[in-house]
Design a protein that fits this description.
The complex is a heterodimer of chains A (375) and B (292). Chain A is built from eleven helices and 20 strands. In chain A, the strands form four sheets. Chain A has a six-stranded mixed β-sheet with strand order 6-7-8-3-9-10, sandwiched between helices. In chain A, strands 13-12-11-14-20 form a five-stranded antiparallel β-sheet. In chain A, strands 15-19-16-17-18 form a five-stranded antiparallel β-sheet. Chain A is of the alpha+beta class and 375 residues long. Chain A has helices at residues 43-51, 93-103, 108-122, 137-149, 167-184, 195-201, 219-224, 229-234, 267-275, 339-345, 371-374, and strands at residues 4-12, 18-27, 32-36, 58-63, 66-67, 78-81, 155-159, 187-192, 204-209, 212-217, 241-250, 253-258, 261-263, 281-287, 292-294, 303-312, 316-322, 327-333, 350-355, 360-363. Chain B is mostly helical. Chain B has 14 helices and no strands. Chain B is flat and about 70 Å long. The chains are: A alpha+beta (375), B mainly alpha (292).
Chain lengths: 375, 292
């Protein structure tokens, strides 16, 4: 069993800067939780507090129900993989991986077996006699992971392990991590600023900003039901589009106006608004690029924009439109556009677009909170 | 056509300029080499000649009295060269080891840990660095006399445990080359702080330690001032003191050949140290100049 509980965790530095505010999270046994957010949001600080590398200013940290606040890092039964690998440069790969086991005075034969087993899992058996300076970035990262695996810890902590790798290698290592996770099946707490890593790796995602938790949920929950403008904008690529709108309530029905155009709201969303007793208000409307459709000829109540940029992504095209009141990005399947349109024919063209009504998100423009989450 | 002609002329002028520049550079370098190496060469040559031959003038060719001079120096009971070599070696090696190890330990403490008055401690160490040895010499002499350590080797290397200059250099090196994540990784792996320092940090500091060891060794080896104040008995004296005694000996018994031979013997250990560790000098001095 390897559960991790963070209760009211707070970190205040000597210069009175609060890096983490009232962090509450329960990590279940064998769960893969990802802390994601922009630089400086406190995710690495939180991870380092779990590791014991930073002192906890307030709150309780429990691993398997045991209070760990004042327990030394080596006694918490955790292993950590760092962004910069943190390999011991004067030791071979074998030496790096065996270091922790030697300190525990484990018999040589057992150390040898564990190191070779981990090396085989990670595909680094051929590099055991090399030193870190003779390895590539990806190989170094595997060694760092191997060094963690051999310890068979209760909790794996990973601090942006893929950040220093090039894009192609990052994709490759991400897939390897998913396979590895299923193979060793233990509890993971993973920190990243990359929302793609968060979405693909995590069982649950914790989105952070300025030391606060903005939302905790599964990737699907965070993507489909963002609780704030920040989460909505941070998760998803390309970013969610935002518009200023006016929500009007007439009895039990709702109407939405965006840029002077009446936009249909699905019955499901209207039922949710009714249940939440939402009233008429100015709103910020969020719609993901894949939930915007190009309007066909003759469509009424379509918003309009001029094509500014046409990004060919292979199977789809990202159309950047200038609406006069802001930029909008649409993801259009390539099959829906002619070759000429994809190449250059679309630049400067005025197009109409509509929203898929059941995928509209409404936020309070003052607080940034989702109207439904707020209610 | 006109353009290609003028380009060719420019290239020719450029090449001529480069050759002149190169020639001047080589002349300067040869001159500097000569200035550096000539005196060593004369030292070795004169160590193979007799006193009379030396007094006649400079020779660029070696003499035939190398073994005779060597025997004369080694058998001189008033100037115990072997004992002097031994004492100088003990002091220099111990000074090098103590200064590098404890300075690295101090630098690591300042670099890797946050504690109250850390900045004050750092400033204090730098302040002490500014103080010349001569200023504190008399007080030091009184202290060791009262401790019964006069005329012993201990006071000549024990104070090297606190070596501000070595500390400063190693700290600069650490800032450029030692990532604290490595220390944190070691902590998580179960390594205690002292163990981490000895098994992880020290190997990373090897180039800096080598450079400082060389400099401390040479400095201690050549040190005349403090040993002259502290050491009285012949059996405890170091090489610089013995060489000085040879120099100031009775004029009638003045033997230049013996002096040259003694100096030649004295520089052999230093040459050996430089020979084996020279690669670290160049690497270690420049590393740390750019933060990696």
């Amino acid at each position: 069993m390897s559960t991790v509980s963070l209760k009211g965790i707070k970190k205040v530095y000597d210069n009175k800067v609060t890096a983490v505010h009232d962090f509450n999270l329960e990590v279940a046994d064998k769960e893969f939780v990802v802390l994601v957010g922009p630089s400086g949001c406190g995710k690495s600080t939180t991870l380092r507090m779990v590791a014991g590398l930073e002192e906890i200013s307030a709150g309780d940290l429990l691993i398997d129900g045991v209070l760990m606040n004042n327990v030394a890092p080596n006694e918490r039964d955790i292993a950590m993989v760092f962004q910069n690998y943190a390999l011991y440069p004067h030791m071979t790969v074998y030496g790096n991986m065996a270091f922790a086991l030697k300190l525990k005075k484990i018999p040589k034969a057992e150390i040898d077996a564990k190191v070779k087993n981990a090396a085989e899992i990670l595909g680094i058996t051929d590099y055991l006699k090399r030193k870190p300076k003779a390895l590539s970035g990806g190989q170094c990262q595997r060694v760092a992971i191997g060094r963690a695996i051999v310890r068979e810890p209760k909790v794996f902590l990973m601090d942006e392990p893929l950040s220093n790798l090039d894009a192609k290698l990052r994709n490759q290592m991400r897939a390897e991590l998913i396979k590895l996770r299923h193979r060793i099946n233990t509890t993971f707490i993973y920190v990243t600023h990359d929302q793609t890593e968060a979405m693909t790796l995590g069982d649950r995602i914790v989105v952070m900003k300025d030391g606060y938790i903005m939302q905790i949920g599964t990737p699907r929950q965070v993507y489909d039901r963002p609780e704030s403008v920040f989460v909505a904008g941070f998760i998803g690529s390309p970013q969610m589009n935002f518009f200023d709108g006016q929500l009007e309530r007439n009895g039990d029905s709702f109407s939405l106006t965006v840029n002077g155009v009446s936009v249909p709201v699905s019955e499901g969303i209207q039922a949710d608004f009714l249940a939440g007793d939402i009233q008429s208000a100015k709103v910020k409307v969020g719609v993901r690029p894949e939930h915007i459709r190009l309007a066909t000829a003759g469509t009424t109540n379509a918003l309009t924009g001029t094509v500014d940029v046409c990004e060919r992504m292979g199977g789809e095209v990202h159309l950047h439109l200038n609406t006069g009141s802001g930029d909008v990005v649409l993801r259009v399947p390539a099959a829906e556009l002619t070759d000429e349109q994809q190449d250059s024919g679309y630049f400067g063209t005025d197009v109409g677009f509509t929203f898929i009504s059941r995928h509209i998100h409404l936020f309070d423009p003052e607080t940034g909170k989702n109207l439904l989450a707020q209610s | 056509m006109k353009n290609s002609t003028s380009n060719m002329e420019l290239n020719r002028k450029g090449r001529t300029g480069l050759n002149v520049h190169r020639t001047i550079s080589y002349i300067m370098l040869v001159l500097l080499c000569f200035l550096c190496l000539f005196f060593f060469y004369i030292l070795i040559i004169n160590a193979t000649r007799t006193n009379n031959e030396i007094q006649k003038g400079i020779s660029l060719l070696p003499g035939s009295h190398f073994m005779a001079n060597l025997k004369s120096v080694l058998n001189n009971s008033t100037i115990p060269i072997l004992s002097g070599l031994k004492n100088s070696l003990i002091i220099s090696v111990c000074a090098a080891v103590l200064s590098t190890y404890f300075s690295a330990l101090t630098a690591y403490g300042i670099y890797a840990y946050n504690f109250k008055y850390k900045n004050l401690a750092y400033a204090l160490i730098l302040l002490i660095m500014m103080m010349p040895t001569q200023v504190s010499a008399m007080g030091f002499l009184r202290l060791i006399s009262s401790m019964g350590m006069k005329d012993t080797l201990w006071p000549l290397f024990l104070p090297n445990i606190a070596a501000p200059i070595v500390f400063f250099f190693i700290k600069q090196y650490m800032e450029a080359n030692l990532r604290l994540e490595i220390v944190e990784a070691a902590r998580i792996d179960g390594s205690k702080e002292f163990h981490t320092f000895n098994t992880i940090v020290l190997p990373i500091l090897k180039p800096a330690l080598a450079v400082q060891a060389i400099f401390t060794f040479v400095c201690s080896w050549n040190n005349y001032f403090l040993p002259a104040l502290i050491l009285d008995s012949n059996t405890n004296k170091t090489m610089p003191i013995l060489i000085a005694e040879l120099r100031s000996a009775d004029y009638l018994k003045f033997n230049m050949a013996a002096i040259y031979m003694t100096i030649a013997i004295a520089i052999v250990p230093v040459i050996i140290v430089y020979f084996f560790l020279s690669k670290y000098i160049v690497g270690g001095v420049t590393t740390g100049s750019v933060k990696g």
